[in-house]
Specification:
Order of helices and strands: HEHEHEHEHEHEHHEHEHHEHHEHH
Low-confidence stretches: none
Helix content: 40-55%
Strand order of the largest sheet: 1-2-10-7-8-9
Bound molecules: ligand F0G
Structural class: alpha/beta
Shape: globular
Mean pLDDT: 97
Number of strands: 10
Distance between the termini: 45 Å
Strand content: 5-15%
Largest sheet: 6 strands, mixed
Amino acid sequence: MGLCLLERYRHLLPLTDKTPVITLGEGQTPLVRSRHIGARAGCSELYFKLEGCNPTGSFKDRGMVMAIAKALEEGSQGIMCASTGNTSASAAAYGAYCGIQTIVVIPEGDVAKGKMAQAIAYGAHIVAIDGNFDQALSLVRSLTDKLPFTLVNSVNRYRLEGQKTAAFEIVDELGEPPDYLCIPVGNAGNITAYWKGFTEYKAKGLASFTPRMMGFQAEGASPIVKGHPISSPKTVASAIRIGNPASWKGALTARDESGGAIEIVTDDEIINAYRLLAREEGIFCEPASAASVAGLLKLAAKNLPLQDKRTVCVITGTGLKDPEMASQFAETPIKHLPADLKTLEEHLRSLAR
Ligand code: F0G
């Protein structure tokens, strides 16, 4: 067993001798080279960072392990978060592992089934509010000011500290940063964390340049692109259905300092990328994650020169989080047949190419 995330990057994380080193096996996620989508985009070297391979199936575990370790160090008895589903799944898992109370506040009816199942299974106290994510976050921010619970949304600075390790891993594996990093943007914590990671590596002489940060918001939930909060954000990608991102400023800094961009992708473009990833690359992600690839394809269509450029798309969460989405957008219908050898054989012969 190698070093865990907190140990591996200890020298670059705000840990003390008193911070408990905990792990559920987060980090060290695969960086997989594209076989087909890169060619479609005219991008000679495209990789997918598979954050769905983290213990609870999303990138949130990197930040959560750090936030919970610090909460334990500070003697916290419980944690609280608002979530579109992945943060709550991750908080509930680490809360269970560390034996502390976890309270999650979610927008009623807006969280994908797999993520709900996780929070339930890990034994979190779940409060579903009749409101959206932005309202849930505003409520937990007020509540954690008054109650003895540690807020573990990405406004907790330790979350971003943990999440920046994904940038370190990419540079460690490629030897240099990519030219472009494509990433979905919701509450904007992750783009902020990656930018922090890349700039810290450069400052320490561990990378000679930084990538252009290319963030993508869903069209109906694109406050940063529009330049104002959206009171009722709408998109098929429930994880990034956010109208007033907490790390708005961080996202603008990442964009501007890196010479990058934050752009819109439509739901159709997201679903197209979601299908392509599964059918051409063998990568089943959740819709929000596909926004990074939808964005890359959009930039390619606008003639962004990607030839001879190295690009990484962050695939933030696994498709198993949202199984209903797969059936809703399935292209291959299920054939129902009797358990009969002859019928089955005939059917399969008709398929054989
Ligand atoms: N992708 C997935 C799968 C997510 O769950 C999220 C955010 C994002 C992308 C966007 O990342 O918020 O740092 O810009 N999910 C949060 C949650 C909001 O509650 O699980 P971000």
